[in-house]
């Protein structure tokens, strides 16, 4: 949250008990829930849209947005305009973007949801997967230790090429257990005919991220967690996502021309958190109960593991 708050508002919180931090977290969580497919049926089933708009979930969401979320975010936006340091709000005007207040709110809302929940869910999967694969943890720790012995510190994102196995493990983690069910939705600009199917203009197109990542034509033994499949795929996820479709190594940040706009920030955060954790700890199960990596729960826009307990065992370099 502090990374996003600093980027957007030039604001940082020293403790999780800060009332404004708590409010910002709750607003983000509720916005995430409102965006879930099960809470947005009127966009997919027009027959329920009229009732939903006036009496159902859509009406309740609208009241929440107008009476709670928007006033709170508008205050943070106005405070950000007065900050001395750089932030996203100020950059809109500085870079010549003429946005309405509603457009500003939309962008900021997306940044808060997309930049927080997805990162925490990804780390939750990283942790539980590593616990289930102690042999991979040992290889990760060994690679980080070699870098530390040479440089006296942990690697930065710019030095990721010197810890290729760590990069491979992170890529395989988000392929093996995707962060979202559907990724970013798209809309057809014109009538399309794909494999004999007509997709009319203005159709909402949603992909199954799990089906894409478990496609045996694209990934050998897709149900097996195997970081070695990415040994020769060391490009940043941003570079891969913006390249040819044939060169994509995963689709966790979306597909087509419209992908996650914060992919570089997300990849950097993920790398730093992963390296800092596994440079200091081994993750082990509590007792003999290995955490479950097969069952998944819906977290509105995200897919997260079932509740689990692990031990973080401090280790020395």
UniProtKB/TrEMBL annotation:
Pfam families: p450. InterPro entries: Cyt_P450, Cyt_P450_CS, Cyt_P450_E_grp-I, Cyt_P450_sf, Cytochrome_P450_fung. Keywords: Heme, Iron, Metal-binding, Monooxygenase, Oxidoreductase. Gene3D superfamilies: Cytochrome P450 (1.10.630.10). The keyword Metal-binding applies. It comes from the Eukaryota. Belongs to the cytochrome P450 family. This is Cytochrome P450. It comes from Mucor flavus.
């Amino acid at each position: 949250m502090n990374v996003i708050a600093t980027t957007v508002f030039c604001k940082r919180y020293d403790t999780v008990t800060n009332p404004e931090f708590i409010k910002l977290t709750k607003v983000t969580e509720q916005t995430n829930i409102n965006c879930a497919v099960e809470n947005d049926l009127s966009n997919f089933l027009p027959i329920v849209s009229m009732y939903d708009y006036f009496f159902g979930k859509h009406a309740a969401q609208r009241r929440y947005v107008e009476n709670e979320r928007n006033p709170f975010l508008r205050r943070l936006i106005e405070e950000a305009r007065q900050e001395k340091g750089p932030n996203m709000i100020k950059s809109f005007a500085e870079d010549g973007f003429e946005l309405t207040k509603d457009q500003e709110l939309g962008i900021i809302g997306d940044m808060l949801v997309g930049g927080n929940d997805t990162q925490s869910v990804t780390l939750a999967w990283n942790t539980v997967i590593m616990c289930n694969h102690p042999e991979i943890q040992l290889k990760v720790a060994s690679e980080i230790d070699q870098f530390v012995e040479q440089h006296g510190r942990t690697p930065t994102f710019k030095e990721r090429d010197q810890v290729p196995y760590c990069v491979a493990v992170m890529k395989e983690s988000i392929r093996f257990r995707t962060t979202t069910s559907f990724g970013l939705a798209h809309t057809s600009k014109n009538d399309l005919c794909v494999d004999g199917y007509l997709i009319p203009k203005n159709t909402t197109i949603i992909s199954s991220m799990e089906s894409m990542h478990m496609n045996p034509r694209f990934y050998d033994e897709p149900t097996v967690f195997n970081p070695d499949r990415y040994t020769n795929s060391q490009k940043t996820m941003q570079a891969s996502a913006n390249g040819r479709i044939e060169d994509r190594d995963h689709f966790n940040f979306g597909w087509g021309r419209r992908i996650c706009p914060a992919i570089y920030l997300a990849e950097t955060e993920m790398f730093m958190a992963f390296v800092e954790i596994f440079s200091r700890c081994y993750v082990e199960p509590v007792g003999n109960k290995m955490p479950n990596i097969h069952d998944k729960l819906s977290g509105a826009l995200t897919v997260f593991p079932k509740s689990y307990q692990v031990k973080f065992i401090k280790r020395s370099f």
